[in-house]
Amino acid sequence: MEDILVIDKPTGMTSHDVVDVVRRRLGIRKVGHCGTLDPIATGVLVLLLNKATKRSAEFSASDKEYVCTMKLGISTSSHDLSGDITETGDALKVSDDKIKEAIYSFKGEQEQIPPMVSAKHHKGKRLYKLARKGIEIEREPQIIDVKEIEILKIDKPNAELRILCSKGTYIRTLCHDIGKKLGCGAHMTALRRTRSGDFHIKDAVKLNEVHEDTIRNK
């Protein structure tokens, strides 16, 4: 356990940015993360140090829990607020009951098409790099499992959700697909990972608190 560090990732940083900061502060070359978080996202980012990096596949495969905010009425190219607007609709005309019905329909095992703005590879190139060049390719659907989906709040045009899901689930795409089903569009405006496998947000330390004693005291 001394070679596992759970960070509460701040917004505005990539997961790789966090790894670089930890490498410098701890003077450790071998640092890896388990499960990428987009710059918009915050919360649990599990880092493996030294020999523990060999267990990356094991920890990355665990279920993840998130709390997200979804805005109805606008779809974007990235499925979150960083993308260009691709579609608009009148979310205020959609009843709360219809919103609840659509959200709950996404519980369970299903196919999900990864967004173009993602770190997945296509012929050796990251999809997001192709997207930056205006290139869109056909993506194979992936099997995901939304094990729990809970509505925390509906305050149209926004809805706050708690989601427990399998590895490889794109929450922003889930929001996009919910909006598509409702016919008004939707995108994700905020995301916080609250658990990754057995590691909870209560176990996490802030990035600015990381120093050599962080490891010695764990």
Give your account of this protein's structure.
With 218 residues, the protein is an alpha+beta fold. It folds into two domains: 4-62 and 197-216, Pseudouridine synthase, CATH 3.30.2350; 64-195, Pseudouridine synthase (2-Layer Sandwich). The chain is built from six helices and 14 strands. The strands form three sheets. Strands 1, 2, 3, 4, 7, 10, 11, 12, 13 and 14 form a ten-stranded mixed β-sheet that branches. Strands 5-6 form a two-stranded antiparallel sheet. The chain has a two-stranded antiparallel ribbon with strand order 8-9. The longest helix has 12 residues, at 15-26. 32% of the residues are buried. The model has no long low-confidence stretch (mean pLDDT 88).
> What is the straight-line distance between the termini?
8 Å
Assign the CATH superfamily of the largest domain. Answer: Pseudouridine synthase
Q: How many distinct domains? A: 2
Radius of gyration: 18 Å
Mean pLDDT across all amino acids: 88
Helix content: 10-25%
Q: Choose one word for the global shape.
A: elongated
**Annotated CATH topology of the largest domain:** Pseudouridine synthase
- How many strand elements? 14
The H/E string reads EHEEHEEEHEEEHEEHEEEH
Percent of residues in beta strands: 35-45%
Largest sheet: 10 strands, mixed
- Derived structural class: alpha+beta
Which stretches are poorly predicted, pLDDT < 50 over at least 5 residues? none
Q: Indicate the CATH architecture of the largest domain.
A: 2-Layer Sandwich
Number of helices: 6
